[in-house]
């Protein structure tokens, strides 16, 4: 992650075998409630030539790195079955 894009991201996610499997963005409830726009989040993906298989949106009450409540928006490059098998 580049310091200039914190805390939104993108955060690159890898499997246990070192394969890039997802990109995650962390969007705070505060930013959503203030109707903040997040233009071109997918701009990171296009140059990599990756195809998004599916997207997950998960609520997080806060954790180190982003203490306030937020959502993780994850763009997956593998199928849900692969996600289940690879991310154990």
Q: Could you explain how this protein is built, in words?
A:
The structure is a single chain. This protein is an alpha+beta fold and 88 residues long. Helices cover 14% and strands 31% of the residues. The chain has 2 helices and 4 strands, in the order ββαββα. It has helices at 29-33, 80-86; strands spanning 11-14, 20-28, 54-60, 70-76. A 4-stranded antiparallel β-sheet has the order 1-2-4-3. β1 and β2 (20-28) form a beta hairpin. It is globular. The model has no long low-confidence stretch (mean pLDDT 87).
Key features of this structure:
14% helix, 31% strand
Query: How many strand segments?
Result: 4
Q: List the uncertain runs.
A: none
Instruction: List SSEs in N-to-C order.
Output: EEHEEH
Structural class: alpha+beta
């Amino acid at each position: 992650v580049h310091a200039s894009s914190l805390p939104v991201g993108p955060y690159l996610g890898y499997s246990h075998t070192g394969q890039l499997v997802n990109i995650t963005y962390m969007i705070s409830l505060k930013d959503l409630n203030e109707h903040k726009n997040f233009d071109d989040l997918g701009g990171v993906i296009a140059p990599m030539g990756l195809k998004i298989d599916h997207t997950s949106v998960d609520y997080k009450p806060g954790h180190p790195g982003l203490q306030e409540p937020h959502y993780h928006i994850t763009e997956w490059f593998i199928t849900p079955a692969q996600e289940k098998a690879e991310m154990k």
